[in-house]
């Protein structure tokens, strides 16, 4: 890659040192939100030879202390106010792993301050949040990676590539589910925001955004409209004040008449056949079980099922490694703003359809991608 482009992406402070021939320079990185996911991301950052943990932020001192201990090797500064991270000129890259309703505001501020951003999914819980973030990323020259890490799964990537090349003919329909065997732990680390729909967006937006992204990837498009029903059928007012659904049934309509049926619930007993999550992609020549093993089942009578993509060793922190490849080598983002926003908007579309109990169209969301 052209050296100017590389320096451009690195940011002036680091670039100047790299350009001056100093070796071993590591990218000063901050993690905002050091709860469950932030701690996992932190391990990923620590595993990257080109990164160093320069700062950590969380409003909860115990989580901040735990993260600081985990990153003691790099002696990071610690903050409880995330804006202090944004103000630090020496920080080049920021991970955002706070509750979902905060992602858009934090990512926009980080981009405006010239930082590269790895933003956890969903990139927003409302169309307005997503719209604002899309505008900020498009107006920035910084790297943006959404935490849709399935995009870095090698086996799934190869299976999707073959589907798009036509191995099952034209994609006609997708049937998918994300069922959980229990409600999220009410006393767990994210129990103080997850059950509030304004903060998490609910199960579809907070959790199923991964599955919906994979469905979009396989179909090669985003839905044009959605309808469906959602409700709290089991965990009524449990925990008290709960405003998220525990079950939902949706139909999405895609370009060229492709249809998708998607269900979610949190009361799927363990051990039922087919597992609690699957994505079946049906085409004119066969179908693929995309989540389990990428097996392809030909429609032609007598033809045997076969694996569409070989099982591969998946690197635990592949998405994080890819983020640094974007920063240091100008590599293509594995989950750019179009992917991250499309995934979030697909979930928001479904959530709005369930909440309003009417057909909601993509254009109703008012976000230009
Ligand atoms: N990509 C994945 O597979 C994956 C997996 C789990 C979670 N996530 C996402 O990561 C995000 C965090 O989820 P989690 O499970 O780690 O939740 P969590 O509650 O364990 O962690 C969130 C942390 O953010 C902190 N926080 C809240 N407000 C803050 C603020 N204003 N400034 C700084 N810190 C603040 C909280 O104190 C908490 O420690 C969510 O968006 C979630 O969807 C992604």
How does this model look, in words?
The chain is an alpha/beta fold. The chain folds into two domains: 168 residues, NAD(P)-binding Rossmann-like Domain (Rossmann fold), CATH 3.40.50.720; 177 residues, Dihydrodipicolinate Reductase, domain 2 (2-Layer Sandwich), CATH 3.30.360. The strands form two sheets. Strands 14-13-12-11-7-10-9-8-15 form a nine-stranded mixed β-sheet. A hairpin with a 2-residue loop joins strand 11 and strand 12. Helix 1 crosses helix 12, helix 6 packs parallel to helix 7 and helix 11 crosses helix 13. The chain is globular. The N terminus is likely disordered. The site of nicotinamide-adenine-dinucleotide has 25 residues, from helix 3.
Helix content: 25-40%
General shape: globular
Helix vs. strand class: alpha/beta
Kindly report how far apart the N and C termini lie: 28 Å
In the CATH hierarchy, what is the architecture of the largest domain at level 2? 2-Layer Sandwich
- Report strand %: 15-25%
Q: How many separate structural domains?
A: 2
- Overall pLDDT confidence: 93
How would a textbook summarize the main sheet?
Answer: 9 strands, mixed
Number of helices: 14
Taken in chain order, the helices and strands follow as HHEHEHEHEHEHEHEHHHEEEEEEEHHEH
Give the distinct bound molecules: nicotinamide-adenine-dinucleotide
Radius of gyration: 21 Å
Count of distinct strands:
15
Poorly predicted parts: 1-8, 10-23
Q: What is the fourth-level CATH superfamily of the largest domain?
A: Dihydrodipicolinate Reductase, domain 2
Q: What is the CATH topology classification name of the largest domain?
A: Dihydrodipicolinate Reductase, domain 2
Largest sheet: spatial strand order: 14-13-12-11-7-10-9-8-15
Q: Can you tell me the CATH class of the largest domain?
A: Alpha Beta
